[in-house]
Structure formats: C-alpha cells, structure tokens
Amino acid sequence: MELLEVAMIYYSFHHDYLLIGELNDLSKEEQKERRNYMLAKKLLNPMLYILAGSLSLFNSVTSWVVISIVIITPCIHRLIGLIFRKCKFVRVAGADFDLMFGNYIDTERVECFSDGVFSIVATLLVLDITTESFPSATDVTRNGIDLTVLQMWPKFLVYAENFIVIALLWFIHHSLFHCIKKMNQFMLVCNNISLAFVGFFPCMVAILNKFADEPKKPDDNTRLAVQCGSVVIFMTSMFQAAVFVAALWKGPTHLEPKVNPAVSKTSHYHLTLKLAILPVISLSAYYIAITASDFIIYVAYHVAVFVTPFLFFALKFFWGGREVGVLRHDVAMDPDLETWVPPPHRSRLRLQKNFVGDTTLSQSLAC
Q: For this UniProt entry, which segments traverse the membrane (predicted)?
C-alpha cells in the first residue's frame, strides 16, 4: 500500500492537472522539490517494514519494536522534513512545509477513521458469544432453547457492558472533536493509540467471558480479568484526554473558543468532566481489584459499568443546563483574527451570534 502511494505521487506530479492549485502554480523545479519532500515522508514506513522483516530473521522482539515505531511516524515526518530541507539547502515556507509533511491534519478524515474503528469493534463484540459460547444442539435438545439461552446470561451481561463502554467512548470522542479545529502529529498519535486500545475490546470480552462470567465462583482469574478490562478502558480514555490537553496547549489555532477556559469556563469544565469520568471509574475498579475480595471485585466491576452512563446523564442534567458562552471580564474574541485579546475596561458580556458571524459561543457542547 505504501509503495502504491509512492507510485501515485510520481504519477500525479507527471500529470499537472491532477495536482491541487497550490502545487500546480509552482515552477517545474519547485514541483520537483515538493515531490521529493513527499516521497521522503512516504518512504519512511516501507523502510521500517523492510528493516523489521530483516531483523525478524535474527530477533523477533526487535522486529516488533521496529514495527511499533510506525505508530509514531506522524511525529517523525516533521523531523524528516527539517533534516531533508537542511540537507538540500532549500527554504520552504511554513504553509508549504505543513502541506508536505502533514502538520495540518483534517479532522474530518480523523473522525471518519475513528468512527469506522468504533463501529467495527462494536460489531465484533458479539463474536465471542456466537463462535465460542454458542450452545450446541445437544444442549438445546437436553435443556430446551429457553433454558439454554437463559443460562448464557453472564455472557450477554459482559457483551452489554462492553457495548455500553464503547458507546460512551464514542460519545466522548464525538464531543471532543466537536470542539477541535485542527490536529497536529502528536494529537493524531494519541488518537491512534486510543483507537488501538479500542480495538482490544473484543479480546477483553473474550477474557471476561472466560474468567469473569461465573458469579458463583469468582477467583483470582476474575481479579486479573477485571484488572485487564480496567487498564484497557483507562488507557483508551486517557489518550482521548491527551488529545484535548494538546489542543488546549496549542490554543485558538487548534481549539474552538467555546471550550477555552479564558473564554467560557462552563463549557471547558463540562468537556473536562466528560473526559474524566471513565478514567476515574476504571482506575477505581482497578484499585478495588487489587484490594477487595473476589466476589466484591466481580460485583463492583459490573456495577461500575452500569452506573457510568447515569453519571453522564447527571453531568448533562446538572451542568449542561448552565449558561455557556459567557466571556470573562478581561477577555474578548476577535472573530477576524480568531485570537483572544484583553479589551480595555469591559464588563462581563454575553457573546451574541450577530457579533461573531458564523462562530457562536452560545452554542452548547455536543449532547
């Protein structure tokens, strides 16, 4: 696939009508420079794959470490661009450099990819029931279909719990990206790592079905299964929170004004609390799995999962109804510059839609 993209780059630069306007307006020499920049970025992953394949002949662990570097290649691309530009003694403007080396990342593509991962994982959750735990014809003949299915209730319980968690993670992801303007490489890596843990959920369902689906006989395996589930949920939600922290650090270029604490503390705290619920719940479940008895661990994990959605409802009920979009007395937003500037002696005011054009701070967060 990577080599096909290299071929597409070569083909596109040999047919000018396939290029975007910014590239098509450049001279042939400048187009060649841009093409070489793009190829330098695209050849990184194939080189890592070839290196990993070569190392696998001697040490499989080292080869897996090399392959794992692919996850952070978006962060490496900019470094490659700086080195390549310095070695070639060519100056490229910031906007062109970002275009070539992916510093500007379209949030719509990230959302589409993320939605695809969530939908696929949510569909795969049921496979452990239909393949590994599905009753045989003998069981149905002996006990009847109703009793046989009823005896499978722990597995349906695990499926329902994990589907709820996936749905909540998707909801948080949707709320988060509703407030992000632009992404950089670090944010993209954090989002991809979060999705990687989301992809682990079908395996987590299999572990819970095997070791934590017997309410009458919880044991040390139940403890380990709950710890595994808690770690996966915690890591998934924490890397989602890391995306928000990175956007907050970058400021108005990456974050919508409505969730900037300098502009609207209410909306900012609302989103922050959303992002904090799952890490706190999963960390609490992990702590209980270390200290409590086996039966308490079993009960606490299931109760925590079903209580979590009600925490989101409570947050929406008690916090979401508050006023949003109220500026601090010392901060205002210039709609043309998209920056926050301190106005001279301005009292608290509510930002109305006709003051900001298409951008409104009175819009609430995603429900």
A: 48-72, 156-177, 189-212, 224-249, 269-289, 295-319
Query: Token pair for residue 37?
Result: 């920049």
Do 136 and 261 lie in a common domain?
yes
Q: For residue 333, give the H/E element and its range.
A: strand 332-334
pTM as predicted:
0.69
Q: Are residues 45 and 133 in the same domain?
A: no
Q: Give the residue from 123, 92, 82, 77 showing the smallest Cα distance to 22.
A: 92
318-358 pLDDT, tens digit each: 775 554 444 443 444 444 444 444 444 444 334 333 434 44
Share of the chain above pLDDT 70, in %: 74
Does residue 111 share a domain with residue 93? no
Annotate 318-337 with b (16+ C-beta within 10 A) or e (fewer): ebbeeebbbbeeebbbeeee
Closest CA to 284 of 272, 301, 298, 309: 301
Is residue 351 one of the residues assigned to a domain?
Answer: no
Distance CA 4, CA 102 (A): 19
